[in-house]
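Proteins fold reproducibly. Consider a sample protein:
=====
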Amino acid sequence: MDSEEIKNAVIAMDDSRVERLVRAALESKLDPGEILEQGLIAGMKEVGRLFECKEYYVPEVLLASESFYVGFNMINPMIKKSPKQMKTKVVMGVVEGDIHDIGKNIVKVMLEASGYQVIDLGRDVPVSKFVECVKQEEPAFLALSSLMTTTMNHMETIISELQRIEMRDRVKVVVGGAPVNQDFARRIGADAYGQDAAAAVNVIEKLIGG
């Protein structure tokens, strides 16, 4: 039993095989950290690469993420996170008035696969809830998503509110979604823009020097 088989099962979007392989790996005393890093995470990283290269599309990524979570939920309680992982917290959500969350969900699974602590506020999230969560959780990153031109301006309102309460310089704001682009991100004062899920994760990695 090795981590390569688990990796391939994630890429193949095979939930039952992932569960069977992870259970067998644990029974054979394989280190949970190795199962996570070399098996599950390696699988999702390859899925991310395939998505970036347009060999996989949203349905395949979502199915692969379900397979990832089957194994992740089995071993997560056994994993000791590194100090870097423990302190890198990401609050994320889809802005108020928008219920399109597939892209956000893909970003979430890729971040969790890389060891980040993710607080997912879901979809149709009011400005006040984003601001309150930043105050309470003090995350390193705030990731905002919108797929509608009628709701994307809420991102600017959130940034303005963070400035008003003098919290803006304590969190990096990353924005993304179909109507969002680099010029918009720059205009509203965001720290970075992610063109798609894979790009968003890469941006966060670069911002922390990962």
